[in-house]
Amino acid sequence: MGSDQVGVKIEPAEAESLSMSGSSGILTPVSPYGCVKPISPEQEELIHRLVYFQNEYEQPSEEDLKRITRPNLMESRKVEKIQEIYLEALKAYVDNRRRPKSGIIFAKLLSVLTELRTLGNQNNEMCYSLKFKNKKLPVFLAEIWDVGT
């Protein structure tokens, strides 16, 4: 195996023998028996993306923290309790309806709910900005968005 290739050891007994391999900086298990299977470029790219993803989400930005903590909330404990009840109900529903992949479905639903909340907030901001700018909305939209005409 060349000096620029990254490898993965097949035998778990030799895990303590590690060295740096190649320019990528990824640890490569080295076996005295030469049982190292090279990683494909696609696998190496996947590893880099996973490391990037992990670093990105372990350290949320200030904007993300503000969005998560909701500083204008008056009774955050009550809201958290109510949210827990809804989450447990949603989890039970998903578990009972979609047995084989319920964990994946539940995670997808949570991400969609977060996105919907963000879109709802953006919609409210747009409605209030239109209201303060005295923009004329069609009657139908004013009724849907509960914006006075």
From TrEMBL:
An example Gene Ontology molecular-function term: zinc ion binding
Entry keyword annotation includes Metal-binding: yes
Domain NR LBD: 1-149
Domain of life of the native organism: Eukaryota
Keyword annotations from UniProtKB, A to Z: DNA-binding, Metal-binding, Receptor, Transcription, Transcription regulation, Zinc, Zinc-finger
Segments passing through the bilayer: none
Keyword set includes ATP-binding: no
Stored PANTHER family: BILE ACID RECEPTOR-RELATED, NUCLEAR HORMONE RECEPTOR
Protein name: Ecdysone receptor isoform X3
Organism of provenance: Vespula maculifrons
